[in-house]
């Protein structure tokens, strides 16, 4: 079974802190994604990566950056956390060249910024 | 207006009832996914459709490309089906758009 893990299930940080969210997948998938999920808005894409050291902005990249130094690991960085970044963060990975393959999601990290 | 609209937003049913969740979209798509999110937060993929109908156990998913509409049906619903069900479309430019989800509660 594909396994996607995230470094924390729950995280509480203070405004202005630098926050690292890590995602690891164990199936050698090329494609990895970071989403945030907010009530009434559904999942929104923050950043994605099709290969090591490659990154592309999604729909809402402002205030975030990413790092993919190894194929299995995709990190999301909040450079200076703000209260409007309180959300559920979900990582996903999938093989192949299009979204017609199954995406595999991590368990999510619920981040609260005080 | 969201490109992917789900209805209803919330649904409460009694155990054993037949359930339908709807998804309408306004863009050209190459595929549509139905996802299930349990209270813990993790999301699992239920179906991927590009035409017709798929069935897995008590779950049935249909899509009508011309009408830009898909339905997820659950037969003989059970409390363990309680979850948020999310529709996601793969747009023709090869990105995904998600609906806001339908929260289903099945009471014993």
Word description of this protein:
The complex is a heterodimer of chains A (114) and B (108). Chain A is an all-beta fold. Chain A contains no helices and 11 strands. Chain A has strands spanning 4-6, 10-13, 19-25, 31-38, 42-49, 56-57, 64-70, 73-78, 87-94, 104-105, 109-113. In chain A, strands 2, 4, 5, 6, 9, 10 and 11 form a 7-stranded mixed beta sheet that branches. In chain A, a hairpin with a 3-residue loop joins β4 and β5 (42-49). Chain A starts with a strand and ends with a strand. The mean pLDDT of chain A is 92. Chain B is an all-beta fold. Chain B contains no helices and 11 strands. In chain B, the strands form 2 sheets. In chain B, strands 2, 4, 5, 9, 10 and 11 form a 6-stranded mixed beta sheet that branches. In chain B, β9 and β10 form a beta hairpin. The mean pLDDT of chain B is 93. Chains A and B meet through β5, β9 and β10 of A and β4, β5 and β9 of B.
Features:
heterodimer; A: 114 residues; mainly beta; seven-stranded mixed sheet; four-stranded antiparallel sheet; B: 108 residues; five-stranded antiparallel sheet; 11 strands; 62% strand; globular
Number of strands of chain B: 11
SSE arrangement of chain B, N to C: EEEEEEEEEEE
**What is the 3D form of chain A?**
globular
Query: Which strand-content bin applies to the residues of chain B?
Result: over 45%
- Counting DSSP H or I runs of 4 or more residues, the number of helices of chain A is 0
Kindly report how far apart the N and C termini of chain A lie.
37 Å
Oligomer: heterodimer
Mean pLDDT across the residues of chain B is 93
Q: How many distinct beta strands of chain A?
A: 11
Radius of gyration of chain B: 13 Å
Biggest sheet of chain A: strands, sense, closure? Answer: 7 strands, mixed
Low-confidence stretches of chain B: none
Helix fraction of chain A? under 10%
Order of helices and strands of chain A: EEEEEEEEEEE
Main sheet properties of chain B: 6 strands, mixed
Biggest interface, chains and residues, is: A-B, 22 and 24 residues
Structural class of chain A: mainly beta
């Amino acid at each position: 079974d594909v396994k996607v893990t995230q470094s924390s299930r729950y995280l509480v940080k203070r405004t202005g802190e630098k926050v690292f969210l890590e995602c690891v997948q164990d199936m050698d998938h090329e494609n990895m994604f970071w989403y945030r999920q907010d009530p009434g808005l559904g999942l929104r894409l923050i950043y994605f990566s099709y290969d090591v050291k490659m990154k592309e902005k999604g729909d809402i990249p402002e205030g975030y950056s990413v790092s993919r130094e190894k194929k299995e690991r995709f990190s999301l960085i909040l450079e200076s956390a703000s209260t409007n970044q309180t959300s559920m963060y979900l990582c996903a990975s999938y093989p192949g060249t299009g979204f017609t393959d199954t995406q595999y999601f991590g368990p999510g990290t619920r981040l609260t910024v005080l | 207006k969201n490109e992917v609209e789900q209805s209803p937003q919330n649904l409460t049913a009694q155990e054993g009832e037949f359930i339908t969740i709807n998804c309408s979209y306004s863009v050209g798509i190459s595929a549509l996914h139905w996802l299930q999110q349990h209270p813990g937060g993790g999301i699992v993929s239920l179906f991927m459709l590009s035409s017709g109908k798929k069935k897995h156990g008590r779950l049935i998913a249909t899509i009508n490309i011309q009408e830009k509409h898909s339905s997820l049906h659950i037969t003989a619903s059970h409390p363990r089906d309680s979850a948020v069900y999310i529709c996601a479309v793969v747009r023709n430019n090869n990105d995904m758009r998600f609906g806001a989800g339908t929260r289903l509660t099945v009471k014993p």
